[in-house]
Amino acid sequence: MKRKHEDLSNDQLGLALTGEDFARACETRGLFSLAYLLRRLKDSDSFAPPAEADAAYGVISALWRSNAAALRRQNEAFTCSAFIEPLLDALGWHRIPEQAMPTGFRTRKRPDYCLFTDDSTFQAAAQSDPDTLFRMSATVLEAKRWDHPLDRLSSTDTPGWFPSQQVQDYLNNAKDAAGQRYFNWAILTNGNEWRLYSEHAAPGSPPSSPSPTSGSPPSTACPSTPSATSPPPAPCSNPTP
Fold first, then answer.
1. Is residue 109 predicted with pLDDT exceeding 60?
2. What separation in angstroms does the CA of 131 have from each of 83, 100, 109, 166, 198?
3. Which has the closest alpha carbon to 30: 44, 47, 13, 45?
């Protein structure tokens, strides 16, 4: 799923940054406009053709069907190893798990993964110091156990904090001593709900987020993951990393 990755931030940030529902599967507020997602994104080189989307959809569907019951009972480590990591692999991401934080990066925790869009960047980052590794990351990802509430106080992982505050802490502190940013994007997921946060989001706006459905498989924008007991919906093209 290797493809050309263009900088779309200036393009999409010029559109209206208002909250809009996206076919009830995805909600976007303060980041992408519905017009951008529906009309502009599909024309970029970063948008996967149907054949590639179908292949990823098939892998993710199988992952959900084979792990649905266990995911509801197991912990974060199982969610990561059985579902999130192979899902990221299917979408073409390269990942490096928890790394030492760059100098001056003062956060209460470290992200679970740094993500990279291609193998050459991944290999170079893996051989680099923490400052360089985080600068080369396309985004970071924070994972929680399956269906863990993302907007409730955590009693064990980060006591007194919401998981969403944890990710915002990463973005707020992702700067070196000179104020240069290490990364502008962060992903938060419990496997069922996936949220994309951005440093560029309109002030005070919540993240773009697929809308979760209690007791249902992950609600991703496209392709979505089917229910273990119902036939999957028709897949559609989706941007790949």
1. yes
2. 29, 9, 16, 20, 20
3. 13
Tokens for 105, please give them.
Answer: 């990066």
Taking the domains of the chain in order of start, what are their residue ranges? Answer: 9-210
pLDDT cut 90: percent of the chain above it: 40
Total-model pTM: 0.74
Cα→Cα distances 79→55, 135, 189, 227, Å: 22, 27, 10, 17
Cα 212 to Cα 219: distance, rounded to the nearest angstrom:
6
| Weakest mean pLDDT among 8-17, 68-77, 149-158 | 8-17
Residue 55 binned pLDDT confidence (cut-offs 50, 70, 90):
very high
What would the mean pLDDT of 196-204 be, rounded to a whole number? 74
Nearest 5°: phi and psi at 208? -70, 135
Q: How many helices (H) and strands (E) does the chain have?
A: 8, 8
* Phi-psi group of 144: left, alpha or beta (phi > 0 → left; psi -120 to 50 → alpha; rest → beta): beta
Position 99, amino acid: Q
* 8 A C-beta contact, residue 79 and residue 191: yes
Distances (CA, A) of 224 to 49, 59, 92, 103, 112: 16, 11, 16, 39, 23
- Sequence-distant (≥ 6) Cβ neighbours of residue 192 within 8 angstroms: 146, 147, 212, 216, 217, 218, 219
